[in-house]
Amino acid sequence: MKEKTIDADQSTLCNRRRFLRASGAVTALAPWAISDALRHPALASELRAKQRNVILLWLAGGASQLETWDPKPGRLTGGPFAAIPTSVPGIHISELMPKMAQRLQDTAIIRSLNTKDGSHGSGAQLMHLGRRDEASLRYPDLGAVIAKELGRADSQVPDYVSFYTATEGRQNAVGQSGFLGARYAPMFLTTESQPEFLTRLPDLSAVDHQHREDFRRLLSRRFAEQRRGGRVPSHNEAYARIHGLMSSAKLFDIEQEPQSVRDRYGPTLFGQQALIARRLVEAGTPFVKVSRAWWDSHGQNFETHLELVTELDHVMSTLLDDLSERGLLENTLVITMAEFGRTPTINASLGRDHFARAWSATLSGCGIRGGSVFGKTDEDGQHVADGEIGAAELFATIYQALGIDHEHEYYQGPRPIPLTDAGTTPVLDVLA
């Protein structure tokens, strides 16, 4: 009996050792190979339990809440589209989203945002930072905070990737690491879906490449020795990660995926970038933003939303399915939001204008009580009737869903700076 106990203990110890060795091997793997390693069920579950990620589907220009998450059929403000029932009894969304209607069990809808800013530029900044920059202090945006809080120092994948490859509204494509420094700045992709300059030039040998890096470090160290301040070390850290990031180039290549997977996401740029986002979070990238522009429908709102909401419905539902099937959704938070919504009033050009007084966002997956709705607008969608929140409360909710204390403080000199403004509370009703 005693002998069997010892054997069992030794077996357990051996299994733990094998897991630790396997974990070390995965850490040493090129990022594009991690997904292959994760096919081992035991190893995959252990590693994924420690990894939390965010994919933000940014609807640049301002999607209409009335044609998506908060329809008002039969009202003068409602427009031509009906509301349909969902997989959650009592909850209806726009008929333009039949696929998401059948998957609402993983999603929480927030229908009561009042952010009070109908300007593209400042509205986008507010919805990226959760607050306003100060005259003498630039705050980090959501992606930079997530990279800081959930990223790993030894990671060879980028911590924060932002896709904005449309021309419309690119000047409002916020991406700033603020006082956190360059280490947490986004990898900003504005022309292609794959980063430039991540591969070594063909006529430059590995030895020469290493010699150049050694020389850069020497100059950088001498520069740092003569100066004091937080920015120099931050830039050095950012440069130091380049060697590791070079091995992540394949993560951006969807040709690495089976044709059947690519077909699921579809041929659109939005779909392809959502697939890259899944590849990145699977490899350990904490935050990926995929921007879909052209929602600024001052004219022909209904034709515009017929096209764009149909695409959003397909891409979002495919992404949630894919994450769920791979065991990633329970640790990945998928957000849809924009800088504001659109007016209930329909203008003379059959469009909807900017509207920040009563609009919607969604949260799916990690830490979220799916199949829930928080807040309510009045019968015409003109005002928040119940549960009004602003950007700060939304950000606090996002942090809490990810297991991050929204009251956690950073320091700039002696000054404590909490992640959200003092007195902010998360929306507990949508948290699991």
Architecture overview:
- By secondary structure, this protein is an alpha/beta fold.
- The protein has helices spanning 2-28, 31-37, 41-49, 98-101, 120-129, 142-150, 206-225, 231-240, 242-246, 259-265, 269-283, 301-325, 391-401, and strands at residues 53-59, 83-85, 92-94, 107-113, 160-163, 187-189, 287-292, 332-337, 341-342, 354-355, 359-365, 372-374, 376-377, 384-386, 409-412, 415-418.
- It has a single domain (51-198, 248-430), classed as Alkaline Phosphatase, subunit A, CATH 3.40.720.
- It contains 13 helices and 16 strands.
- The strands form five sheets. An eight-stranded mixed β-sheet has the order 6-5-7-1-8-11-4-12, sandwiched between helices. A two-stranded antiparallel ribbon has the order 2-3.
- The radius of gyration is 23 Å and the shape is globular.
Short structural summary:
It contains 13 helices and 16 strands. It has 432 residues and is an alpha/beta fold. Helix 11 (269-283) runs parallel beside helix 12 (301-325).
